[in-house]
From TrEMBL:
PROSITE patterns in alphabetical order: JMJN
Lineage: superkingdom: Bacteria
Pfam family, one: Peptidase_MA_2
Domain JmjN: 101-143
Membrane spanning residue stretches: 7-24
InterPro entries to which the protein is assigned, alphabetical: JmjN, Peptidase_MA-like_dom
The entry's keywords: Membrane, Transmembrane, Transmembrane helix
The protein's name in its UniProt record: JmjN domain-containing protein
Amino acid sequence: MVYLERIAVGTICVAVLILATWGFPRLYGALPILTYKPLNTLARYYTEWQTRGWLVSESQHFRAKYLAPDVGIVDLVLDAAEEQYYPTTTLLGFQDSGKTLILIYPDRQSLAQPFGWANNEEAMGVYWAGVIRIVSPRDWVQPAEEFEIAFKTQGPVVHELAHLLVDRLAKGNYPRWLTEGIAQQVEKQITGYELPGPEPEEILAWYSLEEMDKSFDRLPDQTLAYRQSMIMVGRLLEKIGWEGIREILKLLGSGRSLEEALYLVAGMRVEELLPSFTLSP
């Protein structure tokens, strides 16, 4: 803990020095990028400390931590992660340095607990601050399904890995709908899996850009929000392909706004990605 406290103090000192040098107005726009690395480092050390009693297994690109009930599951998780690593990093054009930490939670309730979510939360995975967290397939693969195939085609690893790579490239400087749309498109291309949701012709109205930007996780119809994000990124892919997506993420990582990056790469405004109709506030 003393080591963590020293890191925290060092991070605060660096932040104060930058603020004094740059001034607040200039700093505000670059804040996510300037704080990205120190905050991720702090979060990683804290996560490692929180799970210091967990079991550990490693593969070439991943380090998994898990509890005793998942001793028989960890090899499957690491195998799936390695199989999906190169296809995902090739699409997004980035390989993270070091080994990515994957935490395997025994059930959805234990995954929800660190984030203060309700116990009925249905998420099977989450990416946060450089760490992939997933629910053990023991908790959600149905008895009638072929266990390994179900996990590799429907499991959350590739989706959360895509979030990690977007985060690394853009250095935290992106809206939620963009990373969700990219992760769904990556998942669809690599495993063929698509989150359940209405088809575009079945939807009478869509969320506004402001709602998608500012309230994505609080929108009342999360199925619609996720489907809309996938469609918006799909429109972008049709115009600029994965190479263009990579360029946009790199520009975001250099401090450009999404509006600037989108115009420079695609010659578009963000509003042009929206479906034709929007839901009333």
